[in-house]
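Case study B.
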Amino acid sequence: MRNIDLFDDYLFQRLNADDTKLFEERLLTDIDFKTRLEEHQAFVNLLKEYGKQQELKAKLDTVYTEEFGVPNVHQLNTKDNFYNKYGRTVGVAASVALIAVIATITLLSSGGYLIKQHENSITNLSKEITHIKSVQEGIIDGIKTISQKRNLEAANVEGTGFALNNNGYFLTSLHMVNKADSVFVMDEEKNSYHATIVFTDVHLDMAILKIEKDSVAKFASVPYTFKNTSSDLGEKVFTLGFPAEDIVYGEGTIASLKGSSDTTMYQISVPINPGNSGGPLFDEQGNVIGLIKSKNSNAEGTGFAVKSNYIMQLLNNIENDTLKTELQSNNRKNTLRGLSRSQQLKRIEPCVYNIKVFKGN
Amino acid sequence: MATLTLTDNQYIEGLRLSDNAVIRTIYKKFYPAIMRMVLNNNGTEQEAKDVFQESILVLYHHVQKQNFILSCALQTYLYSVAKRLWLKQLSKKSGMLKLDERFYEGDDFADSENEVSVYEEREQNLSRMQESIGQLGEPCKTLLTDFYMARLGMDEIADKFGYTNAENAKNQKYKCLQRLKKIFFLDKEGKAS
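Model:
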């Protein structure tokens, strides 16, 4: 009989009295035999413990599902918690700080991003709110323990993004999500979803984000399509974005078919602000004709948007077949044509998201 | 369904036996506080659920020992173990934290760190076992489960798996166990190096 079979019979007390006696006598004299029994026993115990643990896990899962249903995998809106906890006073103080800092950043940021390539100083429109955060934290520190301060130093960038289709793909500006630790997409009801960056293009400054479809009950079906040709000078255009906590509408015209001598961009006369980066630019029929990229901070009302035909071209040349197929399962029908502007906006709004980016130090 | 009211010792005894009704009561009674703690500190419901269940596993691991004595209220035990587990996870995904200031306030029992680290050591072996069993495949997986956990006899196993006799089934069990050990220890060495 093999030792292991013997061990099992002994441990399960399946040996008869005589054999048990023989077995135990051998244990006393044969050290090697004893060691091997102990090793076997330890392994079997681990196996049994694993079995019990699996059983318990299954029971816990069952109870959870029966009592609480399916767990939500999204983080609840922390902004609400923050205000509930710290109340009006801090809120007011923080808003004052926020206004002050945005003013400062706007002033300081003239001469930012693209100054090396262009005469004009162009500011990317993501809202850098690191400073605001630290001011807020300064306030919070007064009432909370400081021990986790390290964790609160994350840089924080916000902007806009919009749905490419209802498969969970979003388009936004690369400069916003570049080098991010984590990216969240927040819908109009302030639900945040964790997003992964699945595709980027440095030249066009665009990034495609993806939310796992399972994590969202239902994406609004996308009412717009992307225009595959260039638009005309003087065409009326509009945008939706998140320069503030709530969605903001802006309208204007195509002021130039070249943005700062770059043929991939339009220059637009639409009032845009930090936070508009990554937002969609629409023509009057509700076609997406561009992706808001940056603005000229020296000339008010001068913004730049990447042309949609360049974006489409890029998407059509994606080499990853799976991604390409998923992206192309697009809504091919523009359902906004002929509607009044406010009706158009009602349909577009659910597809425009606030993008929140967390960057490490 | 009516909720049972039990003493801490009754909860522990029920958990030791993996009693369904007790597990349900434990969930209903102790989960809400832990869920709030996780949700208020950058967690999702899914994460709250995972943290709670892991806390139960920590407790379960310890109550298996006959000499287990609960040194504080069960509520406190579970809460502080959960908190310890959640802090560990948070420190892994740091950089985006805004913690509830109440997070640091007392009501911990002193030994929660130790309880968790003892469990984690064991948990490493258990998750290696899980991987190994996953690689083992069928019918070995079920055969070993039937033999070691359900304690089926060789005759029953022979019957169930269609082996000609008990001796044959025993040979299969032997081979399966040898393979599992091989995967487990190879895996272990691979990871250590």
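Residues 77-88, 106-120, 129-155 of chain A have pLDDT under 50 and may be disordered. The remaining cases will be described in the next quarterly update.
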